[in-house]
Amino acid sequence: MKSIKIINKKLLISLMAGSLSLVACGGDGDGSVNEVAKKATTEINKKEDSKTNDANGNMNADNGISTTIPKGLGSVYNSKNFNRYTSIKAPNGGSIHILAQDKISDEQILRARNVLQHYLTDYAGSKYGADKSAVANKMADNNAILCLLNGQDDGKNPLGEKVTGQPLYQNEIQVEGGKWYMAQNYDHRDATYEEILHLVHDTGIGVDGGNTLPGALPKYQAEIRKAQKNALKNKLWATIKGNESSQVEEWRAENSLTQEYLASVVDSYYGLWGAWEESKANGMWGMYIGKTRADEQKEDPMGYALMGMFLHPYITYNASISASLNGNFSLKFDASKPYTNHSRYLKDVTLLGKNNNSVTVNELDNNITGNAGINTVIFSGKSALYKIMTEGNKTIVYDYVKGRDGKNTLSNIEKLQFTDKTIDL
Question: Model's pTM, two decimal places?
């Protein structure tokens, strides 16, 4: 729950002018982002759609993550503090920056970039998200920076109070298929969606009121504000056991009530609290009325409506499944597998590493890419109820039963497992 800090009025005025000359504390970067940054961003974006694993199942070195830290971002953003850089390029040619410290894994960097890209992916037919180019452009104009920091938010990392970008800590970033993700015990709670949403909200969508940056969607923000006020008034949010959270006054003072509310709604919408055992009905540490998407729709319909105005009902990025996975990764909800509260909303996955893994499909149309091991895709019915086709180097498996396993496009997969038999490809 850490939103971007606007350090002072001088910085705010600079950002409102559309300058890319963000200066960190004691900064020396008083020029615009230079050609090094532009070149790095161009090369990174050319590589973003490339394969994320090589022939040996390892994460591809050509994955859009650079060891060059662009100059001009501010004095705190240098090679002494950060050792890797990636970005998302906005339609206007500007960059949305992501910097990582040395203990952040490449898998975590890729996950963070994926989540940011998901938020910025157009959602056809939605009220405010059909064309998100204005949001991405505004983020670039506001010099949006995501800072992936070592450790956790306990005050021990000195950069935590120095960065002007949005912080996201190492111990808060789960990776699909990684041990934290599979365990879902909340010792390492996945805050990736929350913190990156704060970045998009603060620097792209825009927040009404003081101490804020110019935004691209004031009408959407007005609807967020209306839903937030309703939730607070009716004790749907920021309430623990009937009492208003002590954090409310802090959020009100820093004008971050809507950011924190929207993050609570989004987390439950994508299933991030479904596995939490300390409450049967509430999410976000008990502060939000909706634990699951179904709860949200019933208990906070205004918050639920906000999702469809801007966000896809499923995760749009191709999730890189950690090389550490050794076994099955399910996209189908299974109450015995807590992580599937979230993975049920994935539809495209790529297995990393060399382990012989399997993927259980869900009802969505999935794209599944295997690794260097022997990979199996698991279906819910008998083989006779599926159509299996080959197109080039891909296998297409179509389920004749509507709403069960959908259409699956498979690459580098060795086996298809049905309830009656397993087929070798």
Answer: 0.88
